[in-house]
Each structure stands twice: as structure tokens, then as C-alpha cells.
Amino acid sequence: MGVLMSKKQQVEKVQKCSIVVSAFKEGLKDRPTVASTGQTEDVVTENGEGSAEGSNQTNTDHAEQKEKDNKQGSLPAQQASALLREENKANQEAWGRLRDGKGVEPEDLKKSHQLTPPAFVRPKRDVNDDKPVDVPLGQRDQPVNDEMCDVCEVWTADDLFPCRMCTRVFHDGCLREMGYLSTEALQEMRETAHTTSGWSCYYCDNVNLLLTEEEMYSLMETFKQCKIIPESCLVSDELLQYRHFVTKQLFDRDLTDEEEEEVLAQFAALDPEKKGQIEWSDFLYHETLSVLQKFRTENSLVRILTAKERDRARAVFQSLDQDKDGIITAGEAKRAQTSWFYKINKESQSCNVSISHVGPISESSPASSSSERSRDKAMENDNRPATWNNFLRESAIYILAARPNSSAMHIHLPL
Question: Residue 39 and residue 295: Cα distance in Å, rounded?
């Protein structure tokens, strides 16, 4: 299961400790009772008529000793019980945050802040969601960023940091006072918001907010059945067990060897820094995207895309359509989908470069392993035609998967 201990393992360890202590406590309760009965009989036999006073004194002594023993025996049980209650409370709060779409609760939120974090509202499905969407190739959206900070609604020109997905802009001080972003996340925002890779605000970064109440309930029930504890890291064995359970529930069969390799490949894609575990937010976002793929049509996913995302998709398609006939190959479309996960070197970026720029896959990017390179070679032979509308529909899920600021690949292309 790995060297690191997950929160689930910690809870199981506490539960086992509590059971052992409870059994020991019950033994202490029984022992004084037996001794008290025997000694009372001896006092009655020896003292005759005066045995009542001696019996009362004996009972008092044994009661005091029993109370003392119980206090000594119950001390570790109380500590274990308190620890277990604290763990359960933390888990319940984590489930509440998961239901509300907050994902992970930063430590800064435990402090009192002047500004209140936003209340998220989950979307509702519309009757027209599955109908085709007309997104012209030759007409760009060219969205304009908001002029005022989304938090304080004050305009301060160059001090505002834009989101690369939506039109919202923010002051770094407002985000810090709101306490919704950690210090590390704030520093990343300052470094990337004005670059070509850009920065996703807390609305766009959390793709879990795309799920409806019903979809989120279904996902949470799956987590509970698999004993997945929110906000805990997962090692590869836990991800495999989770996938085995889901496959058994959905298809009444076990994972094949090839499917297990796919799971391990996805684990590696979610662990770009090779820590041996995947963060809760990355696991949650990956499962969120799996739900979207399962329950939503491609047309409904296209409707979720923002104007900036549609513009970026146009730029990618037009860069591949060299003869300008509105058609590219399926292999080119697949390679373009992997480009959404490529993060350009921060040091070489300029704020004057278009947000729709997409660079080539570098050797150090998550999509550059030997298996991916062999797959890229296979793509070169896929010359099936792909129109703009087909390209946009098939790419929608990959564009959404690239929203998080994480460097992890939240959708691993099949081998």
C-alpha cells in the first residue's frame, strides 16, 4: 500500500485500538465484582451478628477500589474515543465540503477573515443541453476581461490578475484576505496569471463544480461504498482497488490486465512529481471528468466551454488546417488534444502572447513517455477526416480537463 499512511488507514488503526481498549476496560469491570462477592461471604461467616458493619465497610473499600480501577482503565479508552470522535467529525466536515463543491479546505480558512468565501451553486441540466451547438469557425468570440475585481468590485488597472478561462479578474490581496487560496497558490497566481499558460480562478480550477446535485450524489455514494475518505491521498494499490470495485458494480466483471495497465498509467499521469501518491483534488477532478463522460453528451460538454476556451480551440484547429478547407485528420486532432495538458515554461512566457497559443509537446511534459510517443506514431497513420464541429465536440472533455492549475493529466489518453 505504500510507505505513506492515508487518512483511511489512520482511522482504521484508531478503530482497532478502541476495540482493544474497550475489551480491557470490560475485564477490569468484572474483576472487582468477583473479589467483592467472595470477601463479603468471609466476613459474614467469621463475624456472625456483627457482620453487617464489616460487610458495609468492605463494600465501601471495594467500591472505592473499583472506581479507582475504572478511572485508570478508562483513561486510554477516553483518549482513543476522543481521537475517534475527532476523526469522525473531520470526515463529516470533509464530506460536507465535498457535497458543497469546495474540494479541499485550505488551512487559511480556519482563521477569521474579513472577506467571506463564495457560496457555490451547482448547475442544473437544461432540456436543450444535448442539442447541437453552432460555434462558427471563422468568427472568434474575443471575450473582454472584467474591469473590476470579482471580490471587492474595485478597479485598479494593472494590479488585477485575470483568469485564463473566464472573464473574472482579482486582486491578490482580496484572494489572500478571503482565505480561499493558500500562500503557495497565491504565489503561482502572481507568476502565471499574465503569461500564456495563465491561471484558473477558484471557480474554473474546481471542475467538480460542473456536476449537478444528482451527479455529485452518485459520485459520493461510490466513494462511500469504496471507503474512500475525502481529502486523503491515494497510493496506486488504493486506486486499483477503487477501479476494481467500480468495474464490478457497473459491468459485473473484474478488470483485465490491459485495464489495470491503464489504471497504473493514469496514476502516473496524476502523479507527475513521482511522489508515489496522488492528491485528493487531482483524484476528485479525474473522477468528476469520468462522470461527465458517462452522463453527458459531447454537445452538452461544448455548452460548458467558455468563450476563451472556444477561441483557443479555434486557434488550434486553424493552425492544423494548413490548406484552410475546414478539415484536418483524426491523428492531428488527437495530438491537439494532448496539447491542452502541456504547460509552457513559465520563465519564457510573455504577457503579450495570445492565450490561445499552443506549443509542441516537450520531452519533459507529462505526455512524453515512451508509451505516449509510440501512440503518437500510430496517430500519424490515422488520416480519417475531422471537421471543425467534430473536433470541438471530441475535444471538449480534454479542454475541461485542462482547467485545473495542477500539472497532473486529469485524462490519460488510452494506450
Answer: 73
Report CA dihedral (300, 304, 307, 310) to the nearest 10 degrees: -50
Contact in structure between 246 and 205 (CB atoms under 8 Å): no
Cell numbers at 361, concatenated: 509537446
Q: Are 229 and 283 in contact (CB under 8 A)?
A: no
Closest C-alpha to 61, from 36, 26, 85, 31? 36
Q: H helices of 271-387, where?
A: 280-295, 298-304, 307-320, 330-339, 370-380
Q: Count the neighbouring beta carbons within 10 Å of the beta carbon of residue 265.
A: 18
At 249-263, the pLDDT tens digits run: 878 898 999 999 999
Beta-carbon contacts of 32 under 8 Å, excluding residues fewer than 6 positions away, are 62, 65, 66, 69
Residue 162's φ and ψ, nearest 5 degrees, are -85, 155
Query: What DSSP character marks residue 169?
Result: E
Closest CA to 201 of 108, 117, 96, 296: 117
Contact by Cβ (8 Å): 212, 222: no
Helix (H) or strand (E) holding 55: helix 51-100
Please enumerate in sequence order all residues whose Cβ is within 8 A of that of 210, keeping only pairs 6 or more positions apart, or say none. Answer: 123, 288, 292, 304, 400
Q: Which residue, 292, 319, 266, 265, is CA-closest to 400?
A: 292
Length of the chain in residues, anyone? 415
DSSP string, 340-361: TTPPPPGGG--TTS-TT---PP
In this predicted model, what pLDDT tens digit does every residue of 297-356 receive, in sequence order?
999 999 999 999 999 999 999 999 988 898 999 888 888 887 665 544 333 343 333 323
The model's pTM is: 0.69
DSSP state of 115: S
- Cα–Cα distances (Å) from 256 to 83, 238, 245, 262, in that order, read 40, 17, 13, 10
